[in-house]
Automatic annotation (TrEMBL):
<feature type="domain" description="EAL">
    <location>
        <begin position="23"/>
        <end position="277"/>
    </location>
</feature>
<protein>
    <submittedName>
        <fullName>EAL domain-containing protein</fullName>
    </submittedName>
</protein>
Amino acid sequence: AKSTAHNMYFVYENKMADNINAHLTLGGGLRKAIEEEQFVLHYQPKIRLPDESVVGAEALIRWSHPELGMISPDQFIPLAEESGLIIPLGEWVICRACRQLQEWREAGYRPIKLSVNLSSRQFMQADLVDMVQRILEETGVDPKYFELELTESMLMADAQQSIEKLHGFRKLGLTLSIDDFGTGYSSLAYLKKFPIQTLKIDRSFIHDLGLDCDNDAIVKATVAMANSLNLKVIAEGVENRTQVDILNSYKCQEVQGYLFSKPLNSVDFALYMDIHGFY
Ligand code: C2E
Ligand code: CA
Ligand code: CA
Ligand code: CA
């Protein structure tokens, strides 16, 4: 028994060492990766209900690592946050997303709304609104086709300052979305103090749709309340038809998830638009 415990300890220690190594390797490579632009954005379609046409997309970053291949944001965004590299990286994301919007436009695609995720450290950046304004101007993107996805916890860190910042964004003409809604502690009533336009219901609630009455009741009430507050509601993580049928019956306006498409590179997204981008 003693040797088993010892071995387990060993395995555990090695795993920790692996994690630490991965941490250091990725962290050290991150600065270089930014300089060498080893990042790509993928785009996941947002689908309008009930007609199921593409009305938007969410930009999701990937690190195209020369040795390790595609690395998901969950593995390096936290590192970028810790090191402060999220500031240049976040700017790159906004810039790339705006350029992409213009490229699709020039290629003749009907305009869609593109959203970008912000991280908390990025949101605290003092000149964030100015930076976004500059990029919108430089790229010529009509701000009504640009959306920022924020989380409740980001807003709650300093509510008063957040409200001011959000008003700054609203003056630019873009829209603001609350991501992962339902995972924080704030009520919709409280959130209405913030000038937001869209509510994105977290995929944990969508996953259980049709499987758990209490969960269904929560989603139904959230959609109804959002609708009565004139907020657009989108459900993320939609993976099957049952979920779509239920969301339709609740009058949820938009859905996003693997049922329709996984996040696609810009070329594949354009092909997707060719097929599904009807009015
Ligand atoms: P998120 O903003 O909640 O993004 C949704 C995540 O769910 C994405 O993972 C997406 O690929 C995944 N997803 C989409 N549809 C489905 C589905 O039907 N089922 C399931 N199980 N998952 C689905 P991804 O791309 O790995 O991104 C993970 C997180 O990384 C994002 O969560 C976001 O918080 C962060 N992130 C991604 N790109 C950026 C970025 O440019 N900047 C910042 N700050 N964070 C980013
Ligand atoms: Ca998001
Ligand atoms: Ca989300
Ligand atoms: Ca999330």
